[in-house]
Amino acid sequence: MAEPEPSADSTDLAGAATATGPYAVLQNRDFLLYLIGRLVATLGQAMFVMALGWELYERTHSAFALGLVQLTAPKGTLPHRTLGWIWVALIAVVAGSSFGIHELRTGARAGSGRGARSTCCRSSRWSCSLSA
In angstroms, how far apart are the furthest CA atoms of the chain? Predict the structure, then answer.
């Protein structure tokens, strides 16, 4: 009895072992189909996210709402998201603390009379005093 011939769709393991190079994996039909399907799915998801933001902005005309939706949308892995929220919190602290910094005032703008001059301490950038 004759042995059945392998079909063209079956994977040839001996041939795959001899293929070399960075694109040798693309010779596997199943993996190539998976890769193409994943690419199409990723493009579709990106188009959906873009269309969702566009529709939200068209309905509300609110950049704040669009930014809020984009900020809270799930993305990345858990460690990546955690680091992102930590980064946002640190930026918020820096932005909030900048309201407490007072502008350095020179003698002319301080209005403390003629001959007033500003003398700044060399050790600290922010501690200045006015002297006559």
Answer: 116
Q: Which residue has the tokens 């009379």?
A: 113
Q: CB pairs under 8 A, 24+ apart, for 32-40?
A: none
Q: Which two tokens stand for residue 68?
A: 């809020």
Contacts of 9 (CB under 8 A, 6+ apart): 29
User: Which amino acid is located at 23 in the chain?
Assistant: Y
- The answer to pTM > 0.90 is no
3-class SS at 131?
Answer: strand
pLDDT in tens, the chain (132 residues): 566 665 555 555 555 456 788 889 889 999 999 999 999 999 998 899 889 999 999 999 999 999 898 888 777 888 888 888 999 999 998 888 877 666 544 444 545 555 545 555 555 555 555 554
Buried b (16+ CB within 10 A) or exposed e, 30-42: eeeeeeeeeeeee
